[in-house]
Amino acid sequence: MDEADVVRALGALAQETRLRIFRLLVVAGPQGVSPGQMAEALGCSPTTLSFHLKELVHAGLAGSERDGRHLIYRASIPQMNGLLGFLTAHCCEGQPCEVNQVICTDCP
Q1: What is the DSSP string of 53-89?
Q2: What percent of the chain has pLDDT over 70?
Q3: SS3 (DSSP) at 33
Q4: In order of start, what are the domains of the chain with their CATH numbers?
Q5: Are the beta carbons of 103 and 57 closer than 8 angstroms?
Q6: Per-residue pLDDT tens over the stretch 69-83
Q7: Nearest in space to 13 (alpha carbons), one of 79, 101, 71
Q8: From the CB of residue 80, how many other CB atoms can be counted at a distance below 10 Å?
Protein backbone atom coordinates (compact mmCIF):
# COMPACT_ATOMS: atom_id res chain seq x y z
CA MET A 1 0.00 0.00 0.00
CA ASP A 2 1.47 3.37 -0.96
CA GLU A 3 1.09 6.71 0.77
CA ALA A 4 -1.59 7.95 -1.66
CA ASP A 5 -3.76 4.90 -0.86
CA VAL A 6 -3.21 5.43 2.87
CA VAL A 7 -4.18 9.10 2.69
CA ARG A 8 -7.31 8.25 0.67
CA ALA A 9 -8.33 5.53 3.16
CA LEU A 10 -7.68 7.65 6.23
CA GLY A 11 -9.53 10.57 4.63
CA ALA A 12 -12.53 8.34 4.01
CA LEU A 13 -12.53 7.12 7.61
CA ALA A 14 -12.06 10.62 9.03
CA GLN A 15 -15.79 11.29 9.00
CA GLU A 16 -18.17 10.01 11.67
CA THR A 17 -20.84 8.49 9.43
CA ARG A 18 -18.32 6.77 7.15
CA LEU A 19 -16.47 5.38 10.15
CA ARG A 20 -19.75 3.99 11.51
CA ILE A 21 -20.59 2.47 8.11
CA PHE A 22 -17.17 0.87 7.82
CA ARG A 23 -17.37 -0.59 11.31
CA LEU A 24 -20.83 -1.98 10.52
CA LEU A 25 -19.42 -3.62 7.37
CA VAL A 26 -16.54 -5.13 9.32
CA VAL A 27 -18.95 -6.56 11.90
CA ALA A 28 -21.17 -7.98 9.13
CA GLY A 29 -18.25 -9.97 7.77
CA PRO A 30 -18.30 -11.86 4.48
CA GLN A 31 -22.11 -11.96 4.15
CA GLY A 32 -22.16 -8.15 3.91
CA VAL A 33 -25.06 -5.76 4.39
CA SER A 34 -27.65 -4.22 2.09
CA PRO A 35 -28.03 -0.43 1.96
CA GLY A 36 -31.51 -0.73 3.48
CA GLN A 37 -30.16 -2.63 6.47
CA MET A 38 -27.37 -0.08 6.89
CA ALA A 39 -29.73 2.90 6.68
CA GLU A 40 -31.98 1.35 9.31
CA ALA A 41 -29.11 0.40 11.63
CA LEU A 42 -27.42 3.80 11.36
CA GLY A 43 -30.54 5.94 11.19
CA CYS A 44 -29.49 7.83 8.06
CA SER A 45 -31.27 8.60 4.81
CA PRO A 46 -30.60 6.53 1.67
CA THR A 47 -29.14 9.60 -0.05
CA THR A 48 -26.69 10.25 2.78
CA LEU A 49 -25.77 6.57 2.94
CA SER A 50 -25.18 6.42 -0.82
CA PHE A 51 -22.83 9.42 -0.66
CA HIS A 52 -20.76 7.91 2.14
CA LEU A 53 -20.65 4.43 0.60
CA LYS A 54 -19.33 5.97 -2.62
CA GLU A 55 -16.46 7.51 -0.65
CA LEU A 56 -15.61 4.21 1.07
CA VAL A 57 -15.69 2.34 -2.25
CA HIS A 58 -13.50 5.02 -3.88
CA ALA A 59 -10.98 4.60 -1.05
CA GLY A 60 -10.95 0.82 -1.59
CA LEU A 61 -12.31 0.13 1.89
CA ALA A 62 -15.62 -1.33 0.69
CA GLY A 63 -17.03 -3.04 -2.34
CA SER A 64 -20.42 -4.14 -3.55
CA GLU A 65 -21.98 -6.84 -5.64
CA ARG A 66 -25.47 -7.44 -6.89
CA ASP A 67 -27.51 -10.23 -5.32
CA GLY A 68 -30.68 -10.41 -7.38
CA ARG A 69 -32.36 -7.02 -7.02
CA HIS A 70 -30.20 -5.98 -4.07
CA LEU A 71 -26.72 -4.60 -3.64
CA ILE A 72 -24.63 -6.13 -0.90
CA TYR A 73 -21.73 -4.15 0.53
CA ARG A 74 -18.72 -5.68 2.24
CA ALA A 75 -15.65 -4.26 3.92
CA SER A 76 -12.41 -4.84 2.04
CA ILE A 77 -10.51 -6.73 4.72
CA PRO A 78 -7.26 -6.93 2.67
CA GLN A 79 -7.33 -3.13 2.23
CA MET A 80 -8.01 -2.66 5.95
CA ASN A 81 -5.13 -5.00 6.83
CA GLY A 82 -2.90 -3.15 4.35
CA LEU A 83 -3.74 0.17 6.00
CA LEU A 84 -3.06 -1.18 9.48
CA GLY A 85 0.15 -2.81 8.26
CA PHE A 86 1.34 0.46 6.74
CA LEU A 87 0.60 2.35 9.95
CA THR A 88 2.44 -0.17 12.13
CA ALA A 89 5.23 -1.25 9.76
CA HIS A 90 8.05 0.25 11.77
CA CYS A 91 6.76 0.00 15.31
CA CYS A 92 8.96 -1.38 18.07
CA GLU A 93 12.06 -0.21 16.18
CA GLY A 94 11.56 -2.90 13.54
CA GLN A 95 11.50 -5.79 16.02
CA PRO A 96 8.68 -8.36 15.77
CA CYS A 97 5.80 -7.51 18.07
CA GLU A 98 2.10 -8.20 18.53
CA VAL A 99 1.08 -5.00 16.74
CA ASN A 100 2.57 -6.28 13.48
CA GLN A 101 0.29 -9.32 13.39
CA VAL A 102 -2.30 -9.40 10.61
CA ILE A 103 -5.62 -8.35 12.11
CA CYS A 104 -8.02 -10.67 10.31
CA THR A 105 -6.51 -13.84 8.89
CA ASP A 106 -9.81 -15.74 8.54
CA CYS A 107 -11.45 -13.08 6.36
CA PRO A 108 -11.48 -13.25 2.56
Answers
A1: HHHHHHTTSEEEEEETTEEEEEE-HHHHHHHHHHHHT
A2: 86
A3: strand
A4: 3-90 (1.10.10.10)
A5: no
A6: 999 999 999 999 999
A7: 79
A8: 21
